[in-house]
Amino acid sequence: MHTEPLLIAGLIEVCRATIAANSEHLCALDRAIGDGDHGTNMQRGCEAVSAEEANLSSLPLPDAVEKIGLTLVMNIGGAAGPLYGTLLMEMGRELRAEESGGAFPIILKRAIDAVARRGRATAGDKTLLDVLYPVQDALAHRSRLSDIARRAELSANDTAPMKAMRGRAAYLGDRSIGHVDPGASSCALLTMAICRYLEENRPE
Amino acid sequence: MTTTTVNVGIVIVSHSPLVARGIADMVRQMVGDSVPLAWSGGNVHGELGTDATGILRAIESAWSEAGVAVFVDLGGAETNSEMAIEMLGSPRSARVSICNAPLVEGAVMAAAEASGGASLSKVVATAEELSP
């Protein structure tokens, strides 16, 4: 489909711009319960993907998504690298396997499960999974894009009262309570940006 | 390397290049050249962080047919090491273990054990005995 390269390039750019605009905010969240580098790590990853945009947008969608995942793994440099990387690499593989009519909510569910295995985390552990699972649920229920975005935003806020069970924040125990998880926050920001972009540029 | 190494290899992974290199120096002082040893510290730019491809290179450089024991500091070091092991691919990936052990003591104990020709499972068990 001739719209695919444009879609890939557009999504890469909105994700890069969103992370760049929120980098300092994500670092501030991470300073509270982690090591303070989530914003700069995500920015480094997104910029590396952006630098390869021309090459990526010439690939078939599954290959592009998988390659974006690998680029994130190699460039983010924190725990978020293997987590976001696994999400996209797995999504790419599933897209390829399901090319003939695979349903995206199922593809996304499998990719999220792979992230959960990689991080040995489950829902409620105060991680990006606490945004990914609700987003997937909204998608599976055919929610409107604006509702999916809203669900992502609310889900990230809902990580504040949770106690961190994984990652650096888990060392803080009860003191992690009351802070929004940086990974959940970046995940919500990206989801919101993607939903907004798709709403403005419907692929159909 | 043209000679076949029989001792288990040791890889040190830390968010800090200084920490990783410092521990590797300590291990080297303990066991000399009898154990294949490599370290990876910092992200792709050498700043604090970890780097899956850097860890992969370290595993390949410390590769031994007897296997490789990997020692990690915090969260991301572990997930990035798992990623690196996947990238290494089978069958070699089955012969790499991430040890749940303190970084300094674990690596030194494991290297001492490895220098005596112990198997990967024995090397890992010795290091993991140090964990509470």
UniProtKB/TrEMBL annotation, chain A:
The keyword Transferase applies. Keywords: Kinase, Transferase. SUPFAM superfamilies: DhaL-like (SSF101473). GO terms for molecular function: glycerone kinase activity. Residues 6-196 form the DhaL domain. One of its GO terms (cellular component) is cytosol. It comes from the Bacteria. InterPro entries: DhaK_L_YcgS, DhaL_dom, DhaL_dom_sf, Dihydroxyacetone_Kinase. SMART domains: Dak2 (SM01120). GO terms for biological process: glycerol catabolic process. PANTHER family: TRIOKINASE/FMN CYCLASE, TRIOKINASE_FMN CYCLASE. This is Dihydroxyacetone kinase subunit L. It comes from Ensifer oleiphilus. The gene is dhaL.
UniProtKB/TrEMBL annotation, chain B:
GO terms for cellular component: membrane. GO terms for molecular function: phosphoenolpyruvate-glycerone phosphotransferase activity. The lineage of its organism: Bacteria, Pseudomonadati, Pseudomonadota, Alphaproteobacteria, Hyphomicrobiales. It comes from Ensifer oleiphilus. Keywords: Kinase, Transferase. Homodimer. The dihydroxyacetone kinase complex is composed of a homodimer of DhaM, a homodimer of DhaK and the subunit DhaL. NCBIfam families: dha_pts. It holds the Pfam family EIIA-man. This is phosphoenolpyruvate--glycerone phosphotransferase. It comes from the Bacteria. Signal peptide: none annotated. Residues 7-132 form the PTS EIIA type-4 domain. It is an enzyme of class 2 (transferase). It catalyses: dihydroxyacetone + phosphoenolpyruvate = dihydroxyacetone phosphate + pyruvate. GO terms for biological process: glycerol catabolic process; phosphoenolpyruvate-dependent sugar phosphotransferase system. Its EC number is 2.7.1.121. Component of the dihydroxyacetone kinase complex, which is responsible for the phosphoenolpyruvate (PEP)-dependent phosphorylation of dihydroxyacetone. DhaM serves as the phosphoryl donor. Is phosphorylated by phosphoenolpyruvate in an EI- and HPr-dependent reaction, and a phosphorelay system on histidine residues finally leads to phosphoryl transfer to DhaL and dihydroxyacetone. InterPro entries: DhaM, DhaM_N, PTS_EIIA_man-typ, PTS_EIIA_man-typ_sf.
